[in-house]
Amino acid sequence: MTKSSGEPEDPRVTRTRRDVIRASAASLLERGWTATTHAEVARRAGYSKATIYAHWPTPVDLMRDTIARICEDTTPPPMGGDLREDLHTSLSALAWTLSEGRYDRLMASVIEHAGDNEDVRELQERLYETATAGIRDVLTSHLRRDDVEPCLAMLVGAVLVRATYEGRSVPPGFITDIIDRALTDVEHGDGH
């Protein structure tokens, strides 16, 4: 990272920013947005609140960089070329991320804070795009463009409801069933 003047950023500043964002990401995933205060992040990272405020004056500033880091660290599983197998792999990864990766708490926190705040709505959209990128890629590579969004909504919605709202595991059989149901209309409907 460089300063706007083109000079290299001080390595101490780089280290501070890295440490704080790591601490903020851990807090956000473990405890949610409301608990991820400047004071809590300062405590976790081992820096003063003044340092946190100097780099991130508002909670949204801190969350923007934190969510950017979480999204950058998220990579979809590789595709093998088979529609159903690739969907199964991608949906299983989403289910794991929601339950074990605590992405459910993160998404709920961002949705809660989005309200009328355009900046937070942008974070919400980025999280959704990141979480569904692998599934969207699989669908895009196999289906007509008009079929991608409805299938994506059905597949992701089913996993979200099961893992987040119901708080239940998402076993392989459940994923196979929702894939079969979502693809039935596409494969046997009037779209092809």
TrEMBL record:
Residues 37-56 bind DNA. Residues 14-74 form the HTH tetR-type domain. InterPro entries: Homeodomain-like_sf (IPR009057), HTH-type_TetR-like_transc_reg (IPR050109), HTH_TetR (IPR001647), Tet_transcr_reg_TetR-rel_C_sf (IPR036271), TetR_C (IPR011075). Keywords: DNA-binding, Transcription, Transcription regulation. Pfam families: TetR_C_11, TetR_N. PANTHER family: HTH-TYPE TRANSCRIPTIONAL REGULATOR RUTR, TETR-FAMILY TRANSCRIPTIONAL REGULATOR. This is TetR/AcrR family transcriptional regulator. It comes from Nocardiopsis alba.
